[in-house]
């Protein structure tokens, strides 16, 4: 690919890191491997997540698996929907899978991502394998719109625990969330949106390779061709950053026109192909589209995302 095409891909690929950073910025006193709770119901004005449910309370955690495995303790949750997703929804546990209270081990495993159910002799209910050392977890719990039920869910949230268990060998530097507050990196007064996205990708992408093994070599080469090298971004000569972001946005529109990508439900309602949502694998345009319109969509076994055609 030419340098301009490389730049467009790098922006598309790196944009979700910017959205991760916005979630960090919106979390007071954010730290890794801790659980942060939303105590009040979302409204239609909330845009931090993809189409937030107004009958759901959320808890989130910024996961650093660089030096540790993480023991996630799920308390007893009965009679209500709940789900805990991990990363690019590589794996989720919850009510629909009949997952029960207990300890779940979250660990870095770049070549075998997903969930492995444990046998009876294991101290864990399951092993959640994440292909990147840095990740995010979002826990959603159904709540009825009254104070009494909200208090019950608050009690459940208070019992959620993350306990780091040190491994013998680190796999990456520790995740420093201050990177998402650094004006030399993040979009803001010193950087355009495009510059910030590409600088974040340059810093974080080398240690966080694609989940799809076959993509790792060509993605790395493409990012280098876009000027991302050794933790820094240097714009290639003759390229245009604004054109790169415009081309990325245009790719979303083009994807909508791919035969079979949209299911037409009638009355101008559409449903993007659920195969491309949640665990995006190599669907980098769909991943970018999701990050640009919200954040952290679930896989189709948990949720669907219909939309009006005029709003899509």
Tally of DSSP helical segments: 6
Tell me what portion of residues adopts beta-strand conformation: 15-25%
Largest sheet: 5 strands, antiparallel
N-end to C-end Cα span? 29 Å
Q: How large is the radius of gyration?
A: 20 Å
How does the helix and strand content classify structurally?
Answer: alpha+beta
Envelope shape = globular
Trace the largest sheet across and list its strands. 1-2-9-4-5
- The low-confidence runs, each spanning 5 or more residues with pLDDT under 50, are none
Q: How many DSSP E strands?
A: 15
Order of helix and strand elements from N to C terminus: HEEEEEEEEEHEHHEEHEEHE
**How many domains make up the 3D coordinates?**
2
| Residues in helix, % | 25-40%
Average of the residue pLDDT scores: 93
What do these coordinates show?
The protein has 312 residues and is α+β, with helices and mostly antiparallel strands. It has 2 domains: 1-29 and 175-312, no CATH class; 33-166, Immunoglobulin-like, CATH 2.60.40. It has helices at 3-25, 147-159, 193-204, 216-225, 241-256, 284-293, and strands spanning 36-37, 56-64, 68-74, 82-86, 91-94, 102-108, 114-117, 126-130, 134-142, 161-166, 228-229, 232-233, 262-266, 269-272, 307-308. Helix 5 (241-256) crosses helix 6. The protein is globular.
